[in-house]
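FAQ: What does the model actually see?

It sees only this:
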Amino acid sequence: MEIGISDTVFLMVVSSAGVTLNALVAASLLTMPQTGHSRAAASFVIHACLLDSVKCVYCIPFALSSLQHLEPSVCDALSRFVQYR
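And it is asked to produce this:
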């Protein structure tokens, strides 16, 4: 299955925007004064931002490899953690 250049660019833009906006949300929550329940809610949202940023960063090597029409080099390293039987 061939991935087009527009799909690759879209993946890069969405991944970059996701990392940037998640960092912005986490930074704004860390700088706001919080008390009681708002601290717990902010911690939950910051954790969600961190997890979403990891997902966004995970997409970048695959987008770069499809631009160069190569297999993702990081794919071998990631597949060693999962054993298929």
